[in-house]
Write a structure and sequence with these properties.
The complex is a heterodimer of chains A (381) and B (393).
Chain A lengths: L6 H17 L2 H8 L7 H10 L18 H13 L6 H15 L2 H12 L5 E4 L14 E6 L2 E12 L6 E8 L6 E7 L5 E6 L8 E12 L8 H36 L1 E2 L2 E2 L4 H33 L5 H30 L10 H13 L4 H13 L1
Parallel strand pairs in A: 1-4, 2-4
Antiparallel strand pairs in A: 2-3, 3-7, 4-5, 6-7, 8-9
Helix pairs in contact in A: 1-4, 4-7, 4-8, 5-6, 5-7, 7-8, 7-9, 7-10, 8-9, 9-10, 9-11
Chain B lengths: L6 H17 L20 H13 L18 H13 L8 H14 L2 H13 L4 E4 L15 E4 L5 E8 L9 E7 L10 E7 L5 E6 L8 E15 L5 H11 L5 H22 L5 H24 L6 H29 L15 H8 L10 H12 L10
Parallel strand pairs in B: 1-4
Antiparallel strand pairs in B: 2-3, 3-7, 4-5, 5-7, 6-7
Classes of the chains: A alpha+beta (381), B alpha+beta (393).
Chain lengths: 381, 393
């Protein structure tokens, strides 16, 4: 049994770690989050085009590298560790997964190669303002009028939605009892307007997207519906959990490093048990999250490679990974601020950026409480 | 990375499962799910017979080298056997201290003559073992042991002192004892690792009654007790004792987790029956218990992977802290799900229900085998490179 990374996976992780340590520096993060796009397009071009990251788990038939979800999770973990500002999760974990799970063969052929190369970025629009990232919370409306679909709605919290080239919209049929469907909308679609929202976590841009009687050809509708949307959200939750694992690890590592340098009462504060025990609890959180994330990533891979899968098993693994990683990231970043002391609350230090990322990703794709409630329902109802 | 066992391992799993199904039956059926933590004092003669049956069929000492009568089984196979043993409801093992601790230590550090003397008795389960480490003044600070070993003019070592928290001492034939060979030494220097027969007048065993009313631990008093053997040299005791702790790589943990799962299943069944499952706080805590147990399994699979490396050692370092805290929470959850029903015993005068015993005995989980506070020190020092604790001497 090898529930551990193999040599190739270790190489992918270490290469990503080295690259991001050089590229996603504190100064680079701040430049990116204050830029209009919210990320550095040149860096995106390098990591998607030259390094092939956005192609990582897309099958070779669609221009991808054909690697697995564990490899994708390892990249996400390193991006979280280095707090990379990028449309990777939006485009790969939401966009590419949507096509893989819910797209027709023609749609995959048409969109995936450009997404694999990073030429185009995609995202998913689902909740209304303040709404939940879940398949039952769809509020946009669609109806068929002859040889066209017409979409209406105001969607919010769309990750990298102001810069994405392709927006995948989840909508519900306007007539009573209508089903959920997914639509592919190029950003320049007539009737689609978008605005970046100022967000507390400036490293993850979010947009409001308005659909005002948007008319789409029949070919814009994806084949999957509610069930595929639910699977897509579970896959995306596993990927963001991997990023949170990286946030949790970075908060632990930077706090411990600081505690070894910071002197008070004549010695490094790392020697005090009050600090050591807090750090040990942070490591416990990170390691449990790692076990949950790697397990969920293995199941995600099985889901993507099999024609049939056990949705309850994937849902439970996704909920476990997302809840544990959300709490590990928040606990560790919060403890990190405490261990840094006064400088922890300055804008100069990076720990506050990790803290904000931890909170914004906790609310994204289901809070720990929501995931725990979903598991409780599986066990008790 | 994968979570699958090889075809050979799966065949091994089928062999183990079918042997257990065939043999944990008839006269042995009463042993199912018995003799675990909190119940270790029960059904002793039946469990002795069961040990012999396991041994005769070659299902003990799986990880031992073939030259010592083992099967050279891989970690995966040992994990599989532990899982199947727990799934079948196999009783708490009387031979586990010999098999998992004394045997591997003797195999690694003792002379060929000592190996020939002791290993067959462990393998056959004819001889049971207990561990003489902790003392009233040496708990977390094990290196503070005061028990003395004195070399007589006759060339024999004699042991004097008191050990405590000694599981199975009243049944054991042998005890491995950490004792001070150099009376002027302190801490981890000047210790020896001795093998001492329990069948001598100079050894007295006194049970310790616990908060559950039962007694699974003992105090052991040595009054110039004759040591049959010294393993290694005088002064090497600490090195050998520490290596011993490393031999138990935790293959039994997946079996332990199945015990935990069965406890959680019982709590869920009760919560559905008595309506506690409708309470939002209880729902959340049951979900958390389930999640904590699932992640315990994934964490154990990481640390028990073949060829585990540095990443997996981190998983191993946090493991005890997680399972002990988790299990203690489970005990409290059980009582809160039961509500007022949790107050009544199964029978007079003080026969506890399984869940009451879980609630009370799980308080020990965060204390023995390295308390949670010691675990946090170890994590901070070994994994995070933070400074060691200052010592008061």
């Amino acid at each position: 049994m090898h529930f551990m990374l193999n040599d190739e996976q270790l190489m992918i992780r270490d290469t990503a770690a080295r690259f991001l340590a050089e590229q996603s520096t504190s100064a680079a993060i701040r430049r990116a989050m204050q830029s209009e796009t919210g990320y550095d397009p040149a860096l995106w071009h390098t990591l998607s085009g030259e390094m092939g990251w956005s192609a990582i788990h897309i099958p070779e038939a669609y221009g991808g590298l054909g690697l697995g979800y564990v490899e994708l999770a390892l990249l996400m973990e390193e991006m979280g560790r280095h707090l990379l500002c990028s449309p990777f999760h939006a485009s790969v974990a939401l966009g590419a997964n949507a096509l893989l799970v819910a797209g027709s063969e023609a749609q995959k052929q048409h969109w995936l190669p450009a997404m694999a190369s990073g030429e185009i970025t995609a995202t998913l629009a689902l909740p209304a303002k303040g709404g939940l990232w879940q398949a039952d919370a769809v509020t946009a409306r669609w109806q068929q009028e002859g040889e066209a679909y017409v979409l209406d709605g105001v969607l919010n919290h769309v990750p990298n939605g102001h810069s994405a080239g392709l927006i995948i919209v989840a909508a519900r049929e306007a007539k009573a009892g209508g089903g959920t469907a997914l639509f592919l909308l190029p950003a320049n679609t007539q009737g689609l307007s978008r605005t970046r929202q100022a967000s507390m976590d400036q490293t993850r841009p979010q947009a409001e997207i308005r659909l005002d009687k948007v008319v789409l050809p029949l070919s814009a509708r994806m084949t999957g519906g509610h069930a595929e949307l639910a699977t897509l959200l579970d896959l995306a939750a596993i990927a963001i959990a991997a990023e949170q694992l990286g946030v949790a690890q970075a908060a632990l590592d930077s706090s411990v490093a600081y505690s070894k340098e910071r002197q008070q009462f004549g010695r490094a504060i790392a020697g005090y048990q009050a600090i050591k025990h807090r750090a040990a609890d942070m490591m416990l959180k990170a390691e449990l999250a790692r076990s949950a994330v790697y397990y969920a990533a293995c199941l995600a891979q099985e889901t993507l490679s099999a024609s049939q899968h056990n949705t309850a098993e994937l849902a439970q693994a996704a909920s476990l990974a997302k809840a544990y990683a959300s709490e590990a990231a928040f606990y560790n970043a919060g403890c990190g601020i405490q261990l840094f002391g006064g400088v922890g609350i300055t804008s100069e230090y990076d720990i506050q950026l990790y803290f904000k990322r931890a909170q914004s990703t906790a609310a994204f794709l289901g809070s720990p409480a929501w995931h725990r409630a979903r598991i409780a329902a599986q066990l008790l109802d | 990375m994968n979570m699958t066992f090889s075809a050979a391992d799966e065949a091994f799993r089928r062999d183990a499962a079918s042997w257990l199904a065939d043999n944990l039956s008839g006269e042995f059926a009463i042993l199912k799910h018995r003799g675990g933590p909190g119940d270790e004092h029960s059904l002793i003669s039946e469990r002795r017979a069961w040990e012999k049956k396991l041994a005769a069929a070659g299902w003990n000492c799986l990880g031992w080298a073939a030259e010592h009568g083992g099967r050279d089984a891989s970690i995966s196979q040992q994990v599989i056997f532990a899982e199947e043993y727990a799934r079948a409801g196999g009783p708490g093992r009387l031979g586990h201290i010999g098999e998992g601790l004394a045997g591997p230590t003797i195999a690694a550090f003792a002379s060929p003559a000592q190996q020939a003397r002791y290993l067959p008795g462990i393998r056959s389960t004819n001889e049971l073992w207990c561990q003489g480490y902790s003392e009233p003044g040496a708990g977390s600070d094990l290196a503070a042991v005061k028990t003395r070993a004195v070399l007589g003019d006759d060339g024999q070592w004699r042991i004097s002192g008191q050990k405590v928290w000694t599981s199975l001492a009243h049944l054991a034939d042998w005890c491995f004892v950490l004792a001070r060979t150099d009376p002027n030494s302190h801490d981890h220097k000047g210790l020896g690792f001795f093998l001492v027969s329990m069948h001598q007048a100079a050894v007295t065993v006194r049970p310790i009654e616990q908060l559950t009313g039962s007694a699974e631990f003992n105090e052991v008093f040595f009054d110039e007790a004759l040591a049959a053997d010294l393993v290694g040299q005088p002064g090497e005791g600490w090195k050998i004792a520490m290596a011993l702790l490393g031999f138990e790589r935790g293959v039994s943990t997946l079996g332990q987790q199945m015990q935990f799962r069965s406890e959680l299943d019982e709590i869920i069944r009760i919560a559905k029956e008595n309506g506690a499952a409708q309470d939002p706080d209880i729902r959340s805590r049951i979900a958390e218990a389930h999640m904590g147990l699932s992640v315990m399994r994934y964490n154990a699979l990481r640390m028990l992977s073949d060829n585990a490396g540095a990443d997996e050692q981190k998983a191993a370092l946090v493991y005890k802290l997680h399972w002990s805290s988790w299990h203690r929470h489970l005990g409290k959850l059980a009582m809160d799900v039961l509500g007022t029903a949790s107050e009544l015993c199964e029978a007079a005068p003080y026969a506890l229900t399984r869940l009451q015993a879980l609630f009370l005995f799980s308080r020990a989980d965060t204390i023995y085998g390295g308390s949670n506070q010691i675990q946090r020190n170890l994590i901070a020092e070994r994994a995070l490179g933070m400074p060691k604790e200052a010592k008061g001497r």
